[in-house]
Task: structure prediction
Amino acid sequence: MDLIRHLELFEAVASEGHFGRAAERMGMAQPPMSQAIKRLEAELGCVLLERTSSGAVLTPAGARVREAAGRARQAVAEVRAAAADHALAPVRLLVDPALPGAWAAAIVRDAEASGLAVDLEPVPTEGALQRARAADLPAVVLAPFRAEGLRASGAAPALLWEARHEAPRSRTTALVHEKASAAFLARLARELRGLAVGGDLVPMPQATALGRLAAGRVHAVISTEAPVLPEALAGSVRVRSLPIGRASAVFHAVLRRTARDRATVAVHAAAAATLARVHDA
Amino acid sequence: MPDLSTPAGGTSAPGAPDPGPCGPGTGGSLALGDVLRIADRLGVDVAVAAARADGTGPVLAHRSQEPWPGASLYKTLAALALLRVPGLDPSERVTVTAADRVPGGAGLSLLGDPVTLTWRDLLRSMLVGSDNTAAQVILRRTGIPALDAVAREAGMTSTAVGTTAQTVAAAVSARRTGGSGTGTDRDDSLLAEAASDAVLGSTTTASDQLRLLTALWQGRLAGPADTELVIGTMGRLVQRSRITSAFDHPGARVAGRTGTWGPFRHESALVMHEGEVPIAVCVLTESLEIGRLLPAVDDGIGEIAAALVGELRSSR
Result:
């Protein structure tokens, strides 16, 4: 029997003191209400209500059961509330800070369209991988990386932008990134060499990079977002996107292969699907 | 066609202890922490197994029981199987024609005209240059069950020879077992890349490679002359950019066998130092990208082997 439901009906009769009024309040007819209380009494093995000519009166056992039933109902409500909180809590998705803003927005929008709430947390790839391996956290990371234990989506290459100084005083190339992985830097340096963008590749925040570009102290700034240049630089700096087949930032959505939580798995799948749609071909 | 669902080899050898998945700095071995740091820096996956070739001392291992596409690592088995063919004269001449050719980057696979050479030289071309055509001709003579028999004697439990398409599919489905999620992923791109590749390859584990090297060095798989021929020929491996490159110091020699396909770069080798028991080491790697040269990964395989061999030599 559905004990919680039967206790609810019993509480209704107890508070109304009348089978008919209680049945009406619960939106049912009197006979099934009476039968339900009989079933409950049989289940619990005691008489809960004394039927009188004017209605129903709680027996001493019924009074104690009513009290306990109130607590049980409260506990069940708490269980439902906890589940509801969890169901509504957004899944955290770790994203490398280089993820283009338009992609980040598309991931959140696509996820919400399929009923998933997502909060993005920018975390550089190395840290994100450690956390993704340690817990069931989905992440969008920058290749290449050690994929041990992780399910990785297909590769999603993003356009890289180059802002190049016309008359640089340095051969250093700046990469707009707070904390790029060694693996990504090595890969990108090789690709840039293929495009004759030579020199050391140094990761730094955007403001630092553009400041040094203005002073000619880096000869180029590479970023995954098209740079917005101050007017003062317009004459001395040229902006172009690098050819996608030659140099790019490649993203993958990853999640521990053993992850089971439905919302987490769904967010990873949604992020993977979005990456497959928005990537630059 | 070989049945990849039933691995070659018996079940006699105990599995090498494997500390299981771990992050840098864990697992009880400093060298294994170094291995994972190198792999992280290069952005590749890695499985390793290493131990003294006489079977004494510790075994260093990471993901050593997982099946990987081993590509040409099977060629050591092929050489041993050829030398065991009853009544085969290694100096008998064989003519290889254009019809025998299979794709490959070295040896007879590069040539267009008929070539006549001995079984022994076919073996040399297969081991020194990783010549796919020489391997195919040898396997046609031995049959794949003969390789399975060598593997069984070496105590290998999870190694099988098959086409690249079969071996990649077998290894990928093993690592997907028990996984969750819908939709396609990177493994699907890998399967698509391998789907039509009929060149012979293998599935294997780092542990199995360790067993093979150990049994070979201990002379359990061939007589003294043939053992010397195989190890000596492996010492002349053309591709020196992986494990060999890390041991170019005086007094060191490497007898290695590489395996390369798509994102996979491997080497199994005996690293020999004068006056010491050789160290058997296997390094299996997988990059995210397919079809790039990635010399840093070749280098990294050497670095990884050096870390493992260094720890084992100093633990004497």
Q: What stands out?
A: Residues 229 and 261 of chain A are 44 Å apart (CA to CA).
